[in-house]
Amino acid sequence: MRHIISQPTKQITGVFCAMVLLAQAGFAQPVAHENQEQLVLTLEQARQRTLERDTRLKQAKLFIQQLQIDGQLAGKWNNPEIELKVENLNGGSGEGDLERETEFSWSQELLLPNRRKARSSEAEAAETHAETAFQSLRSQVLVETTELVLDLVYYQERVHHHLQMEAVLREMGRRMSDRVQAGKIAATELNRLQLEIANHEMELARDRAAQMQAKRQLKAIWQSTSDTDIVIDWDQSERKRIEEEASKPLNLIKNPSLNEVRTKVDWANRQLDLVTNERKRTWRAIAGIKRFEASGDTGVQLGVATELPLFRRGREETRRSMLFRDQVEHQAQAMRSEVNQAFLGLRQKMGQAKAVLVQLEDKLIPLARKDLQSLEASYDQGRHDLRDVLERHRSVHNLELERLEWMRDLAKSYWNLKALSGG
Q: Is residue 160 assigned to a domain?
C-alpha cells in the first residue's frame, strides 16, 4: 500500500514522520515493562490457553461424561427384588393354633425390547445434544477470548500512538523553549503546547485503564491470579490473511448453534418416544417358596404383577413431552433466522470496514500528513500560528486512531464469521 510522504525539511517534521512510518507498517511490537514478568502470546496461543483453562468448558466435559454413564445404564435391567417373610411367628402345632409360615419370594421387572431400545435411544440423543452444546459453548468462549485479545491489541496500539505523539510534542516543546528564551515567540505558545501534551496524557491514562481491564478479563478466563503482564505479539501479516480468507465463501452447515438446536430437536423426539413407551404397562414376574412349619409342606408360588392405572398420569406426561418438542422446534426456526441475520450483518460490517480503511490509508491519512508537513514548514517561517499546527497534529493523530478502530472491527467481524461457520 503506497503512502505519499514528502521529504521532511525540519527537525520537528522529521520526528513526526519517523513516528508515522513506524505506525503505518501495522501493529507495533510490544514494549517490555520494567521489573515486571511478561507473558507474550500470539492470538492462537491465547485461544489455546482458553481451551485448556476455561472452567465452563471443563464443567461441560464432565457433564458429557455423566451422560455417557447414563447411556451405559439405560439399557440394563433393574436388579431383582427378594423378600423373606415369616407369618404367625408364635404359632403352635396344636389344634386351632395358627401354623407358622415362612415365605421367600423373588420378583423381576420385565424390560421389554421396545422399552429398552427407547431408553437407550433417549440417552444416546441426550449425549449427542450435550456434545453439540459443548461445541457451541467452545465457539462462544473462543469468540469471547478473541475479542478480548483484539481489544488488548487495539489498546496496546493506542498507547503506542499516544506515547509517540507525546514524544513529538515534547520535542516541539524543547525547541520552542529555546525560541522563547531567545525572545522569538511568546511564552503563551509554550503554554498552549503544554495543554495539548496534558490532553494526550489524559487520553493515554484512559487507554491504559482499558488495556488493564482487557488483561484482567483474560486472566479471569484463564483462572490466573499472578501479576504477570499479558502482551499480545500481533502478526503484521494477519490483516492480509483476514482479507484473503474473508473473501472465500462460508458454509453455515457446521454452525455450532444450529447443530446444537438440531440435536436438541432429535433429543426431544426421543424423549417423546420414551414417554410413550413408559406409558405401557410394566410387568413384574414373581416366584416364591412357602413352607408350613408344622406340617413341613412346601408350596411354590408363581405370578405376575402390574400397576393399576387409576390416575392416568401418562397422558399429562406425554402432553408435556409434546409441548417441549414443539418449543424446541420453534427455537430451531428462530436460531436459523438469527444465524442468517448475524451472517449478513457481519459480511456487511466487514465490507464497510475494508472500504473505510482504503479511504483512510490511501487518501485521508496521507493527505493529512502532507498538509501537516506543509503547515509545520510555514510555522517555522512564522507564517502560521501554533494553534493551527496542533490542530493538524490532532487531526492526523485522530485519523490514525480511527484506522486502528476499523482494523479491530475488521478482525472481530472476521473471527465472528469464522465462528459462525464452525471454524
A: yes
In a domain, 4, yes or no: no
Burial of 145 (0-12, 13-18, 19+ CB in 10 A): buried
Q: How far is CA 407 from CA 17, 85, 150, 242, 359, in A?
A: 21, 81, 10, 11, 13
The C-alpha cell of 152 is what? 488488548
For 34, the domain range is 11-420
Beta-strand runs (E) in 26-173: 38-41, 81-87, 101-109
pLDDT at 95: 54
Residue 351's nearest CA partner among 272, 421, 277, 247 is 247
Confidence of residue 296 (pLDDT cuts 50, 70, 90): confident
298-306 sheet: strands from edge to edge = 81-87, 101-109, 283-292, 298-306
Write the pLDDT tens digit of every residue in 180-220. Answer: 777 777 778 888 888 889 998 999 999 999 999 999 999 99
Please tell me the total count of domains within the chain: 1
State the average pLDDT for the chain.
Answer: 84
How wide is the angle at C-alpha 168 spanned by C-alphas 163 and 173, nearest 5°? 120
CATH number (domain holding residue 77): 1.20.1600.10
CA 36 to chain centre: 29
Q: Which residues of 8-34 are buried (b: 16+ CB within 10 A; e: fewer)?
A: beeebbebbbebbeebbebbbebeeee
Share of the chain above pLDDT 70, in %: 88
- Is 2 a member of any domain? no
Structural domain contains residue 319: yes
Q: How far is it, in rounded angstroms, from Cα 414 to Cα 347? A: 8
Judging by beta carbons within 10 Å of its beta carbon (0-12, 13-18, 19+), is residue 407 exposed, middle or buried?
buried
pLDDT of 396 above 90: yes
In the predicted structure, residue 394 carries a pLDDT above the cut 80: yes
**Triad 163, 365, 417: Cα angle to 5°:** 85
